[in-house]
Structures
1.
Amino acid sequence: MNSFRVPKGTQDILPGEVERWQYLEEKARDLCRRFGYQEIRTPIFEQTELFARGVGETTDIVTKEMYTFEDKGGRSMTLRPEGTAGVARSFVQHKMHGYADQPQKLFYIGPMFRYEQPQAGRWRQLHQFGVEAIGSDDPAIDAEVISIAYHFYREIGLDGLSVDLNSIGCPVCRPQFRQQLIEHFRPVIGEFCKDCQERLERNPLRIMDCKVDAGHPAMATAPSILDHLCEECDEHFSKVQQYLKELGIPFTLNPRLVRGLDYYTRTAFEIIESRIGAVSTLCGGGRYNGLIEQLGGPAEAPGIGFAVGLERAILALDVQKVQLPMTPRFDLYVVTLDDASHVEGARLLQQLRMAGYAADMDYMGRKMKGQIKAADRLEIPFVLLLGEDELAKNVVVFKEMATGEQQEVALSQLETVLAEKLKKNREDE
Ligand code: HAM
């Protein structure tokens, strides 16, 4: 019989590796708490139409990458390829624009699904930490959102990342620019890749970030969106830059930056680690002032957000050889020498666990030496030895693994001694 394996483009995250994921997730939650963003959990699947309308009919995500299926009621459903459309749908459905707390500042962490060709940093089930601030057009909030993404990476220990920034205008200024781009590329479009040829009329801005044709001379001479912003977009963009400078966030203007989703207006940004290979964008985001209205909400609900790819954050940690500070799994291990002490050991273990300690004992019938070896392998700092003599005297032998030092401790004193030893141990680290 064939053995089962994970589906292509997905992975198991096992103990030993999952701790890094938990660390990133905790960091994300802590940052969001400090910045005032609250968690939102939306369904993993939504009506297909939501993504078609939200993300855009002509985008790669919608035309090529969605996991779409018909449910038993004959409705077309899609596993979410990204988080913004679902959050925006939820905002509209729950009339969040009417909530007292404005803008609504939300975050999510969870799996997304895209049928892409897997490679390093590109998965079919990927995980994002994303934030969305909906209801404000203040350029200061653009900077706040970028600041969360930037500090996420800084606080997990990554360095040397670049924040690429652009404005892609609005429905007032973009059509004119779009037309100029079409005219610029039309004479040479035959020399571009098939995707770009299709993009010329549909979405000419996307030609600008084509990886295949990046070296074509027409790319270098293409008009810049930044020279074609309307007055309001221009002013907004200047202010975003001013705020970013005030917040001490380094950025690089990149007029070629266009995002692969249709809902963006004005600010667009990406955070890049160029050393991780072909798939170097760690995070992408931007403003989407028209999305809420497009999904049936009030016109006056402009939004901005980003999503961090967690697989790529892990990849960047590997490339930069960052060791995350990990808390040890266990505080102590109970070693028992015979049947009677095994019973007392189980009782003691329960008491210590209820008191808040992470503790374990042997369930494999190992001899004393084997039990101590197990504790050593798990890097447990303290071991309690318990045998016939100790039971008779109501004591345990308290052993410090690092020094090998042993002392008898009365059971009544155990928690006090343990608390002191652990405190000292943590201070020493
Ligand atoms: P996105 O650029 O499509 O934007 O994805 C954001 C990030 O998710 C990427 O920069 C990358 O790190 C990660 N990512 C995307 N696809 C994959 C994949 N196949 N494998 C691994 N990682 C991947 C969005 O999703 C927008 N919703 C971001 C946003 C939120 N804009 C405004 N609010």
2.
Amino acid sequence: MSLDRQKALNVAVDAAKAAGGLMKANLFAEKKTTSTTQYDIKLELDVECQRTIETILTREYPESFILGEEGDTGDEGASHRWVIDPIDGTVNFTYGIPHACVSIALQEKGSEAGTEAYRDGYQTTVAVIYDPFCEELWTATLGEPAALNGIPIQVSNRDRLEEALVSVGFSKNEQTLDQMLPVVNALAYEVRKIRTMGAAALAMVYVASGRFDGYVENNIRLWDIAAGGLIVESAGGVFWRRATEDPHTFQILASNRALHEKLASRCFNPDKMWGQE
Ligand code: LIP
């Protein structure tokens, strides 16, 4: 039996706002870390936010499988799953930078026209991204226009690289830095500006809203991009992704339609993974 996607969207919005409220209340609080590496930080608040989201989602959907940055729960064989990044932009948040968000996606088994299923056959059918600091709520349901605070959004129609604002993400290890820095060098001389903001989900919805013209990253995890990918597609953009060998990990290019091919040709060889000669 297919889910009532409007109801699922409403429940996901409630969950995102609950987690967003915790983020807003704790931006300047002392941060308690659960792990710290050279290029990444994880917080106790990440876990608390995911538990808050899970409680709201499983109250309505007890049969759900939850695949989250802070762990998985439920039956992995379920016909649908919630894909959650409770705080996307955790390093920004840790440093008191109010550029972070909550990302929640509903994914259903099977494929419907218009979206490419992920490697394991799921596709995103409902998406919510909430920035509690700017009070900006992006939403999308498969087959419906994407919206920002309830108002329909569209990707930009800029078609000249020299006018383009392109965001690049650096993931959490030296291999990805080695792969992404040449991309930055290739683009920096041709576009108007490069932006590295530290929150993939926000970069994706900035593309959907016409603020950015493209967003590229390698070795990015499913919970960072699942909701943003549907929102970009539902705003008329292109969300290209390719699974890597690591579970739930992708290389992606999200962009408007006019610049997609130009950006793709400069970011990677579509026939090869980054870093392969
Ligand atoms: C972050 C992503 C960012 C990526 C970082 C990190 P987190 O997610 O949004 O684009 O470059 O390495 O993965 O860890 O803050 O949820």
